[in-house]
Design goal:
CATH superfamily: Transposase IS200-like
Number of strands: 6
CATH topology: Alpha-Beta Plaits
Order of helices and strands: EEEHEEHHEH
Distance between the termini: 30 Å
CATH architecture: 2-Layer Sandwich
Structural class: alpha+beta
Number of domains: 1
Shape: elongated
CATH class: Alpha Beta
Strand content: 15-25%
Largest sheet: 4 strands, antiparallel
Radius of gyration: 20 Å
Helix content: 25-40%
Length: about 150
């Protein structure tokens, strides 16, 4: 089981798997130096925004990132932060990338995201929610049933 993280007035355990592509699926990240720099940049972003980068990998034309983040950031905001800052930093470090990308955009427009649990499956959560308000031996009252 994962540790529960804390923020001001919030306790959470949110994990996401993100995948995004290099624009036009150009294999611009096969170079180990670029991979190393991208990792450093994304770890810096994680430190700045309190993301916990659990794993990060690339196969040359797309990036996989497994991270934990506070609920103040929606997945779309997390992706926007990662893609925009990393592209800017990559272009500063490797100016030749713009020549290879015709329009000067490093990342493709879309992405994949999945939330990842740490043992609680959708079935378990569904049963837990469905059983709210049921009679229990330890509560002298019934919880309000909304649906």
């Amino acid at each position: 089981m994962l540790d529960i993280l804390s923020a001001s007035h919030t306790r959470y355990s949110l994990q996401y798997h993100f995948v995004w592509i290099v624009k036009y699926r150009r294999g611009l990240l096969y170079d180990k130096q670029k991979q190393k720099w991208l990792r450093e940049v994304i770890e810096e972003i994680g430190n700045r925004y309190w993301f916990v980068i659990v794993e990060l990998a690339t196969d040359g034309d797309h990036v996989h990132c497994f991270l934990r983040a506070a609920p103040r950031y929606s997945p779309s905001v997390i992706m926007n932060i990662l893609k925009s800052i990393s592209a800017k930093k990559m272009f500063e470090k490797f100016p030749g990338l713009k020549r290879d990308l015709w329009g000067g955009e490093l990342w493709g427009d879309g992405y994949y995201v999945a939330s990842v649990g740490d043992g609680a499956t959708a079935d378990i959560i569904q049963r837990y929610v469905a059983n709210q308000g049921q009679e229990t031996g330890h509560k002298p009252f019934s919880q309000l049933k909304l649906f």
